[in-house]
Design goal:
The protein has helices spanning about 20-30, 50-75, 90-100, 125-130, 165-175, 190-195, 205-225, 240-250, 275-280; strands at about 5-10, 35-40, 80-85, 105-110, 135-140, 150-155, 180-185, 230-240, 255-260, 285-290. By secondary structure, it is an alpha/beta fold. It has a ten-stranded mixed β-sheet, with helices on both faces. It folds into two domains: about 5-140, HUPs (Rossmann fold), CATH 3.40.50.620; about 150-295, 3-Layer(aba) Sandwich (Rossmann fold), CATH 3.40.50.620. Strand 4 (about 105-110), helix 4 and strand 5 form a beta-alpha-beta unit. It contains nine helices and ten strands.
């Protein structure tokens, strides 16, 4: 079964950024993974012109902070290491550290120090999501509970092998946290679809046809997962894709959405900047994004 081995948690010393620690530790405990606690300290105005001693002092303070946090993780049986960057901007430093440490998951808050003024989604977190070499879990600042407390994990699928890349980590996380797995297939309403297709479609019921294809597909996915995990539910809902995913996540109170950054036809469908980005901006719960590393190497994992 799929497992994460090295989990990176970027921190900035704020309570908001530290909200990523609990889910990261939960995953590390369940999968016997290690943590990489990272702190990026860009040279601020007060350090410009400082001598080497001042810079080393600042680095020493931040290192002590990371070691203190690591000690908390060690107290519950999770091992790890710390890394510090003083020279690079936060997003670039996080991406560089993820590559250097060979992290396969980054867990980070969508906001950090001073709330929206620091790690606003659209700044550090968004830059990391666009360029990260691994999976990225974004913990929403407004979420009231740990993503695994609700014990429901939502996986939106569009019928493509690329979208199905979200299944292995989702199943493993569900099994590790005893969560219910919710498979969702969104079919666009007839009104939306007619606007983009030939007039001949007017003579058919698009929504019914969509359900006739979507329901067997989800059942096949569910059957294929039965060997690994049995607590799986499925749903087919009509509506705008991103908005429907966000709304559906709220109805059963899912704690986590796991989705690929690309879906059907690769870049032409679930391009980050479209469906995945809208879900990340709109969802009230945590979101785990699975990037497409190499489209050419993608192969079907579930028979349609």
């Amino acid at each position: 079964m799929f497992k994460y081995q090295r989990i990176m948690v970027p921190l900035d010393g704020s309570e908001l950024a530290e909200r990523a620690l609990a889910p990261a530790i939960t995953i590390a405990q369940a999968m016997d993974a290690s943590l990489v606690l990272f702190r990026a300290v860009p040279l601020m105005a007060e350090l410009t012109g400082s001598d080497q001693t001042d810079i080393e002092k600042a680095g020493g303070t931040e290192t002590d902070y990371l070691r203190s946090v690591l000690g908390q993780a060690a107290s519950v049986g999770v091992e790890g290491c710390t890394q510090l960057s003083i020279w690079q901007p936060a997003a670039e430093a996080i991406i560089a550290c993820a590559k250097e440490s060979e992290a396969d998951l980054i867990v980070m808050s969508s906001h950090g120090r001073s709330g929206r003024s620091r790690w606003v989604f659209g700044s550090v977190a968004e830059k990391v999501l666009r360029r990260a070499p691994c999976h990225v879990m974004v913990i929403r600042a407004q979420a009231e509970t740990d993503p695994f407390t609700r014990q429901r994990i939502l996986v939106p699928l569009d019928g493509s092998p690329l979208a199905e890349k979200a299944l292995p980590p989702a199943v493993s996380l569900a099994a590790a946290t005893d969560a219910e797995l919710l498979l969702l297939r969104v079919i666009e309403s007839g009104k939306a679809a007619i606007a983009r297709v030939d007039r001949k479609v007017l003579y058919g019921n698009i929504e019914i046809r969509g359900r006739e294809k979507a329901e067997p597909y989800l059942q096949n996915v569910r059957d294929s997962l039965a060997e690994h995990y049995s607590s799986v539910k499925m749903a087919v809902v009509a509506g705008p894709v991103a908005e429907t995913i966000v709304d559906y996540a709220e109805e059963p109170q899912a704690g986590l959405i796991v989705m690929s950054s690309h879906g059907r036809s690769g870049l032409s469908r679930w391009l980050y900047g479209s469906i995945a980005e809208k879900v990340l901006h709109g969802a009230g719960c945590a979101t785990l994004v699975i990037p497409m590393k190499n489209r050419a190497s993608a192969s079907p994992t579930i028979s349609k």
